[in-house]
Records
---
Amino acid sequence: MSNLQILKRLYFDYTHKFLNKILISVFFSLIVAGSTSLIAFLLDPAIKKIFIEKDKQLMVIIPFAIVFAFTMKGVSLYLAKNTLIFVSGEIQKILQLQLMKSILNSDLETLDKKHSGKFVSHLTLDVGLIQKLVSDTILLITKDTLTLFGLLFVMFYQNWKLALFAIIMIPLASIAAKSLGKRIGKVSTQAQEASGLLNSFFLEVFKNHKIIKIFQREDYEKDRSEKYIEEFKSKGVKILNVMIRATPIMETLTGLMIGGLIFYSGNLVINNELDINNFFSFLAAMMLAYQPVRSLATLNMGIHQGISAAKRLLPIIDTKITDKSKGNNLNITKGDIIFRDVDFKYELQENKVLSSVNLKISGGQMTALVGHSGAGKSTIMNLIPRFYKNLSGNIYIDEQDIYDVSIASLRKNISLVSQDTTLFDDTVINNIKYSNLNASEEDLNDAIKLSHCEEFINKMPNGRDTLIGENGVRLSGGEKQRLSIARAMLKKSNIILLDEATSSLDSETEEKIQNAINFLTKDRTTLVIAHRLSTVVNSNKIYVIDNGKIAAEGNHKELLNSSEIYKNFYLKQLTKNENNL
């Protein structure tokens, strides 16, 4: 989109709905302009009537009028700014909500392309620049333009020859501002990129602080932080340097104008073509006009900053993830899941991750996926809830293609328990209720009891209302897993996707988690990426995945005789269990 198209879009999509508030601000800006012009105009009768003619009556009236004009200017400016602060705050809220909606509705592949820190930068820095564009631009265009016209009227009223001389400054200032505006847009984009990288770095440090400490990489990260902070600082300084480049230009133009004005007006006074009171009134109007001229000259730079931010934000907001099958609800009967000739590759990779995968996950039974890391097990699991879209082939649930039913009805019937347990910085009870916000107290109690969460919850200082910290940092690995299982239980889904944790736990905790999983998966269609020997042995069917293909299938006994890969997996797990005894 061109700059003009972006400005139109910002107006019609965001600013237009607050037009009544903006008009109120324009009304107060008009009063500001009138008050400022009145101040300059009153110096004419003040000098003539008080200092030259010594009129005692006007000696009281004129100062009172000047005080009144300043008061009106101050109050009106406050009300104009206050109104636009409200408008810009509402626009900021709308932009952030739209951005969050787009992010939340995006598929995983879209989110995987960009670091979360860059999204944070969009939500803060870019939205802030657009907010500033809306509030500052409207205020400056209305207040300063009206004020400038009012003061020009005073200047022409006092002496049209001097006024023509003075307005030469306006086009000269505009030329300087135009060239600086283009530069500020480019630098602003660079600053946003630096901000995104810095946010990404900060998030990485906070997330991996244990790794940093155990490998003693504090100095290494300090050096990296210096690099990112220096880059962000240099871009910020560059923006400010570009913005203040207008200062020497404007000051020089002002000096030339005032010097020339005094020389020219001196000749007019000497030749009796200009009275001293008219000169002082004109001079006051011209000096008061300096601020709006300077603001309008630098306004172009703020507009370019906002446009650059909008160019980064609007494409994200415009990314629409439409569910073409919305309204077609998935109807679960048995819960059979079938893959037919499914291929898949990640967008940024050349090779296929899955190739001609055919498998059946029988309803109400447990099916296990076994294979080395990177074989494609997690990808198979991620395709079922449509986290990613398969390249070719079909996936059916009870003979219904998952792409012919709505995403909402599909995911409503699926619960996920991943090995990397994800929890929120909230209370224990809110983390469990996340899967079903309207769950009854009875269902909550059952989920807590059956997942063996009760014993550690009762030991917490505030019980169920205890805050567990970022991603459950105040919980042990086993407690996190049980909390995740309780959350899945509460959803009461027909299909369970279970990616077993690879971490070793003590035998007592292991047993509790296994019991919780048994309750969770009982009579439900379950696909498990198996790491525990007990899970594999008890599965109704096992698929051995190797290099994105089905290498073998069968139950435990069959695969021990028919699959070398499975046999090696079994022997490794057996050895591991013996070593843990």
Note: The mean pLDDT is 85.
---
Amino acid sequence: MSEPLPETNETPPTVPENGPASIDALTLNAILETAAAGIVSIDSRGILRTVNPATERLFGYDRSELIGRNVSVLMGGGDRRNHDGHMHRYLTTGESGIMGVGREVTGIRKDGTPFQLHLSIGKFVVGGEIFFTGVLIDLSKEKRAEQRLAHQQALFRAVFECLPDPILVRDPEQAVQTVNPAFLRTFGQAPEALAEKGDAALYASFEDWKLHQHLRNSACEAEPDRAPAIVNFRRQDGEVFPAAVGCSEIATPQGKRLGTLELIRDISAERRREAQLMQAQRMEAIGQLTGGIAHDFNNILTVVLGNVELMEMRLGDDKDLSALAREAREAAEIGARLTDRLLTFGRRQLLETRRINLNEFVLGLMELLRRSLGEDIDLSTALSSDLALTEVDPGQVENAVLNLAINARDAMPRGGRLVIETRNVVLDDNAVAAAPELTPGRYVVLSVSDTGHGMTPEVKARAFEPFFTTKGSGKGNGLGLATLYGFAKQSRGHATIASAIDKGTTVELYLPAVQEAAEILPKAQSQTGVPRGHGRRVLVVEDNDSVRRLTSRRLAELGYVVDEAPNAVDALEVLANSPPFDLVFTDILMPGGLSGLDLAREVSRLFPGVAVVLTTGYSDEVMTRDDAAASGLMVIRKPYHQAVLARTLADAIERNRQT
């Protein structure tokens, strides 16, 4: 065996200054001691002969612990198991996959921690014996950097692939380099088309393209939190849509510009929701206005209709004056029906709700509809066999169906087809997003479709507005669809219109579904035999002076003894300081802090023998019909006929006596 190599931990020998070999040895020793990389030497058996300080630091050993041990002690995994075999093959065949090339291997520290190394191997011969040198470079930092980079790339790729909004990556010359999958879903264009045609085809117009060029340059140079620009784009099928575009510069930490990243968010659905909300708010404002006007007008009609009826009772056999009075009464009744429609649109109508099956209701109207539509229109139905019940006002449903059928007839002057359909639907959060007042749940849909001339977008946008009509002067008052819309909303439902020119129209009513059994509609009561008061005492509570005076006269005409109060506070004082009353007839909404319903509760508590009847112009003043029924109260709505007033008061007094 040849002489062993000198160990580097020995004190360097002193040599003559001019000895070239000694100078080389000193130089080599200095390199070994100061090198940042680990450097080791082994003999042909793989035994460590020398290690430098960097090796000690790298593996955590003292060199005395390594000299004389097999170099595999510094290796981990498969590299340790295969080391001796690789060396034997090289020594016997000369084959090596690493000599002069280098490769990555797994090192193992003294504490057992594995880490990646780059190993370069060299060979030298001393005295006929083969030795090997290994240069070991710690790759831990590089591997951690690679892992961070791989993580960032995977994160970017996940965001890039999964983001629902299109992303475009451009180079410094603004050419599109890559796009994400959302780009294809939104624009309908393959990325290859951009490379061939450029991106000008993505824009609604050349002006939009130029605007975006300017906005892109200014936005990328500005602060990152700048508000996105709004640009109009065009899909592959030609549809134009608005989008909010955000732009960010891609640059190295050193400031070298690599390109730009653009995020395009389609805001067409958002714009539609904003328009729908604005339309709903507009309809709500119109409804409040019309409802308020109708309420005041009801008070006026109550005075007019009541006085006319009193006048008719006094005219006797004067046919001419009776005819004039009758025309005045009929005009007042027409006005009352008009206010009914306004109140329905404003969602202030007092609804007489019942649980009904719309299928039975539609089938019951078919004969009337066929007579109304004529022979030129083919009327058919598509009714769900398992239709749920809905709780609605049957009279309003009948009006809705008749109005829609008449509108369809007018839209098909040369004949056509009309289909009435019912079905069950379940609306989730996404489905009700277009109708902010709807809540998710089960609904019954009543749909009326025609093959008429359809509506323009401008007409469809205003179709539910009161007094809006396209039928011309004297052919419609514009309240049909408005009434339907108000009725649907007040019933906690919704109404929609789908229409296009020459494609017909479909109007759909969404009404909440209920589970309980249907109710049998009550038969209309006989209008004959107006009951008399027979001297019973009634307290009339009404803040409108004209209505109060008229009501007192009407009740006196029926044989009641009447007293008056302008508000609930005065009414309680009259009740406390007067002979007993049989009934209190009170308006619901009054000044003074107490409503008619509050007064009814106080009367029930303080004067339990006194009946109470409420009157109102619309339903949302304080209560609903169900609230009144739960309190044992009766309600009549203004304006009312003398016969209705007489029967209601007589029934209330009789019922109170029985209880």
Note: Residues 354-514 form a domain with the Heat Shock Protein 90 fold (CATH 3.30.565.10).
